[in-house]
Amino acid sequence: MVQAARRISGMFHFRLADLPKTNVKFFRELIFYALAGVMAFHFSQLRFGLTGQPPENNIYHLMEGTGSTPLQHRVLIPGSVNLILKSLTLFPSAPPISPESLFQHIELIAVFLLFVAVRHYVSLFLANDLVGILSAILTFNALLFSYVMPRADPLWYVHWFPFDIPAVLFITAGLILIHQKKWAQYYFLFLVATVNRETSAFLTLAYLLTNLGKCKTKQVTVHCLLQFLIWATIKYILFLIYIDNPVGDGGMDPTEARWSLGLYDPNDFAVNLETLISISAYPFIFSIIGYLWVPTMLLLRLVREEFVRRTMVVTVPWCISMLYVGTLTQLREFGELVPVVGVAFILAFQELLKVETGPLNRG
Amino acid sequence: MSSSGAATSFTARENALSQLVFLLIAAGASYYFSQLRFGLTGHLPEVSIDRLMAGTAQTPEQYRVLIPWLAKGIIGIFKLMPTLPTPAPMTVFQYIELLCVLLVFLAFRHLVSLFLGKSATSALLAITVWYGMLFHYVIPPLRPGPASPINFAWWKVADVPALLFMTVGLILMYKKKWIAYYAMFVLATINRETSCYLTFIYLFTALGKSTPRSISIHCLLQFSIWVVIKYLLYQFYIDNPVTGPGPPDAAYAGLFDVTDFRMNMADLRDVRLYPVLFSIAGFLWIPALLLRSIIRKDFIRKSTIVIFPYFAGMSVLATLFELRIFGDLVSVLAAAFVLVLDELLVVKPVSAGGG
Questions:
Q1: If residue A51 lies in a helix (H) or strand (E), which one and from where to where?
Q2: What residue ranges in B156-230 does DSSP mark as E strands?
Q3: ipTM of the complex as predicted
Q4: Which residues of chain A lie closer than 8 angstroms to B39, CB-CB?
Q5: Residue A362 pLDDT greater than 70, yes or no
Q6: What pTM was computed for the model?
Q7: Interface mutation vs chain B, best among A29, A129, A141, most B CBs within 10 Å
Q8: Going by C-beta distance under 8 Å and a sequence separation of 6 or more, which residues neighbour residue A274?
């Protein structure tokens, strides 16, 4: 009986290592892309099932250019959808596609590419490719807290905006390109990322932090100025295009919006302070990036990769600025930090393992 | 925390700090989870907490009486003290569940630390069990398609305690603390019949390690306890209404719903539903199973085999796409995931292993 049970147990003893090396690589890639596809699909379904669009800034307003600023300034995806829909009119025989469906497909592709990018980003620091694959799964879990999970008390669903997930993708890809110093691609990505969302400015900050003291001051200054110039130009053009749009969450008249000029909502700071006074909101606020940020911050000194350690500094100005220009209880404001913190978490975890395993076992 | 350079271990102060941080995260996450559970799930009127406490709910839900009895006991104690306001039943259930989630965190950390032997690392990765729980007990198992309504997850009293019992059961089984294990097994069976999968795990992990006689005795004993409890509960609630469309005197007698298998097979033919099914334990089960051969700890590696009889059992006895039914497996799968990550990140001396 024992023998029979062992034989049955052996049937489930699937070993990737038993396969020839070329097959292992093929199967690993196959499994990763299949898994990334399935996770992206599931994430996309959850996004469109469990979130809500504010009526004054829904996809139709954003496509028509009548949404409130600064949301309307984030035109990359609505503009792309407009372009695709217009292109489709050139093919009368093509089946009609709804804007909702297009937005959903674009987000699905962005999530899929994000998992691929996270895997690649992790592989820059860790030789073991399998850890990169596992990191993509952890990223999926961490993303849920910014883009799917609602605030429970009071029940407040996440707002869905088309630029959110692409912004995370651009930050991840931007960090990869900064690390690899592929400047031509980086500047192209930076341009696209800025048209998508103004948080691309943090890529410049990440560049500055990771290159200070490593490159010539002149070179760093030129890169920073160039990025700032691109950012400011794009923001100014978008500002001029949508100068007459309503402003902020309340859709204020732009002539009365005074110094915020639709770039941000000055009411947010007071609301955020009110939130911070309420201790019952803390378990929710702390769930940013699935609580991973807490141990990552505490273990940051263990991380040997200077690039990753320095990029983590970005989280500080990010959080401070979100107090002014975002709403704390909308955790999606912190979604772009998922790859930054996620990679630092993996590296901190690895170092922690080494510390706790002891010097003999370090690999 | 110490810097990376020459640090070989943490100081007592750093260890204490890491434990404090773990407890704060565990408490915060448990609270948030509990809030989500009572905000994002639905209660079936046929098995409402009032009916469960009164013993008039449909079977088999009514057989899962541990928590309703416990809640009744707590409310009864409050009633004995007239100076104290008697809490509402819902509040009592909510507090019990909050406590259970927190205990799952603590138990899972302990379970993982048995194999990793690393206190801070185990605390750090205890969050993975929580990620898994969200997919079973909070996130709605959405069916794709424009006409599909959102199926919110059902809130059932026995779910989270069942995961807790499974996690504690694994710890006690591994440590071979049999008296404590059998006491826990009795409670787990009164809570939910899925305790029988602990016996499966025992069988898989003990085969080849213990004598066939010892294994047979333990399996028979657990089976006997399980059958006796189930039979007593069956007799106790024999007149209760039965879940599903069948008459109360149908062959299945409130033990399971015969229509589930047909429905599950129909669902399994719809490929669009697979992402939901694959999201068991937050997708952690996929690397946990595919890479299980690299796990050196026999106990966890072999315990993952339970997913096969569990899946087969649930195909017949429950609704597959109601993911909460797989919740009991979260600690097994998350522990396997943690050990896979550990194996991939740390090169160990050849002598390490066993378990």
A1: strand A51-52
A2: none
A3: 0.85
A4: 150, 152-153, 155
A5: no
A6: 0.88
A7: A141
A8: none
